[in-house]
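Pipeline run #58 for the internal structure catalog. This entry was flagged by the ingest filter as a single-chain record with no existing model, so it goes straight to prediction. Upstream metadata was stripped on purpose; only the residue string is passed forward. Reviewer on rotation: M.T. Logging verbosity set to normal.
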Amino acid sequence: MIDSDAVDGGVRMRKVVVLATGVILLVAAAAFSCAALRRPSGPTTPEQAASAYFRAWENGDFAAMRRLVDDPPGDFADRHRDLSRSLHVDSVEFTPGRPVRHGDEASVDYAVTRELGDVGDWSFHATLRLARRNGAWRVVWSPATLHPALADGGQWFLTRIEAASADPVAADGRPLPSDSSVQPYLAGLGDGSEEGSPGWAVQIRNPGQPAQRLKTFGGSDAHPLRTTIDRRAQAAADAAVGSASAALVAIRPSTGEILAVADRLPVAKGAFLGLYPPGSTFKVVTAAALLDGGMTPSSPVDCPAVTVAGQRTIHNHGDLALGRVPLADAFAESCNTTFATLGVGAGAGRLGTSATAFGFGAHFAPGTDAYAGDFPDPGNDNGLAEASIGQGKVQASPLAMAVVAAAVADGSYRSPRLVPERLVAKGTVRPLPSAAVAGLRSMMGAVVARGTAAHAGLPAGTAGKTGTAEYDAQGRTHAWFIGYRGDLAFAVFVLHGGDGGQVAAPVAARFLTVIKS
């Protein structure tokens, strides 16, 4: 169907007129019974809301779409028309998935294909988000509903390119599916190794950012750029993440090659550019500082339910209390009280050195377009206690935490990359202290064998660390799991996911189960 306004059906409602002062009094009590007043004014299930919204969208009925949106922007229809006009859209077709419901919120992963005049068809995946408002289900609209890379004020362009190249391909030279969530990461890698025939490009320019190429057409004679993406790993990652607001990044520890990027986060390139508190996954960095300072996995430590580190009161998740235990057990059960106390004792200098060794504060190699993360000066012991358990001012991207896991697996920090090594400047390779590496491997294995990830269904041989990272004053949390198995390292991040062991680790298990089969 052509994207355009639908004709107003001209529905009229009867008016009930009440004339006081003894003239005429018309009472329509039945029409406004208590039962009718309590009836939700809209779809009563997310399935109904999503179905009605997509049906109206295919018909170009922006008025009907707007009625289904919770607090739509004033220029709601204009934003849709701008996309169609700028890209010369002739028709649009949607293939929605099944709604995934989480209490009073839901999400629908959908595929959309637009016919762009004589240029060709453009397909991609996006997410429709819904919420229950006053008993009825409504669409929670944002620019990302149109495309995951679109921000407020973003502009669309269909640009003629004089020397088009083929889209980047997987490491084996074969194309990647057009609806794979890794595509936005590949679109910015540039042209292939040789110029091809003229073509077109779909671009978007968000405020304060350079134009981003989302899709190219033409370039049949071009030699496509081979990336480091492994097609099988990418398919497994996309399937494991599904339509959840989550990201999974997989890396080959021995080379730094990025093998897969599955991203359904509601921000553009969130797996590389999104910065979030890493929570207890950062205890890998803290533990490395402790092991390098002379401790071992068997060193006795205290794990009370509550402690004061600096002047900051630290609690364990679920009021866990282990008493006097080996460091490995405190790590496996993710004792906040242990690591906050030990982190303050180690000092900001040692902890900062460890964070730098794992890449924090660095810009990754060209082609990844990412910043590793932040470990700013904690300022005082209160800040250091929080930083030691990945809270406070500490921030990291899913890519950065995958690099942390890869460094443990390989024994060296390596700059991650999406393109062949010959196309980037020599990346950083920095060996980690051998005592820290050996201890971390043992303790991360214990997390899966008997700790917080023991019931996640992870395959044998997996080592990792869970994370449950608070992000607001109400104590709500993101879910993390990082780890490795053989020469494959990964990080899983689930936005607002809750418990890392219960939510993020099973995503990793689904991914690894497919890869090993």
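catalog note: The longest strand covers residues 120-133.
catalog note: Confidence is low (pLDDT under 50) at residues 1-38.
status: ready for reviewer M.T.
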